[in-house]
Design brief:
- With about 110 residues, the protein is an alpha+beta fold.
- It has two helices and six strands.
- Strands 2-5-1-6 form a four-stranded antiparallel sheet, with helices on one face. Strands 3-4 form a two-stranded antiparallel sheet.
- Strand 3 and strand 4 form a beta hairpin.
- Helix 1 runs antiparallel to helix 2.
- The chain is elongated, with a radius of gyration of 17 Å.
- The chain starts with a strand and ends in a 17-residue tail after the last strand.
Length: about 110
């Protein structure tokens, strides 16, 4: 099993969720996060004063899937989240050692 974490622009969330649903992903966790990479923030003007916005709003998707579904999920995320501009985000893929469903005690593949 693998865990995919994707950091994307907030306005791309619905497109990515739809694309993942079309390939059979049935669940995910979504968090509103802030951060920066190469963008390093930007300056904004508020009531005549300029100030630096260091941390930009992003959305973090987390999903746990079978190993054989990784490429389809990554391709769905890339195909819908990519704008071609700086700040599109990142995708992280890690191994999952064990999953336990709290309600039933089911483990691993059955718990997904």
């Amino acid at each position: 099993m693998k865990k995919i974490e994707a950091i994307i622009k907030p306005f791309k969330l619905d497109d990515v969720r739809e694309a993942l649903g079309e390939i059979g992903v049935t669940g995910m966790t979504v968090s509103e996060v802030k951060g920066f990479g190469r963008q390093k923030g930007h300056t904004e003007l508020y009531r005549g004063a300029e100030y630096m916005v260091d941390f930009l709003p992003k959305v973090k998707l987390e999903l746990v899937i079978a190993k054989e579904d990784v490429e389809r999920c990554v391709n769905a995320i890339l195909g819908t989240a990519q704008t071609g501009k700086i700040g599109d985000g990142k995708v992280f893929i890690t191994d999952i050692e064990r999953i336990v469903r709290i309600r039933t005690g089911e483990e691993n593949q059955e718990a997904i």
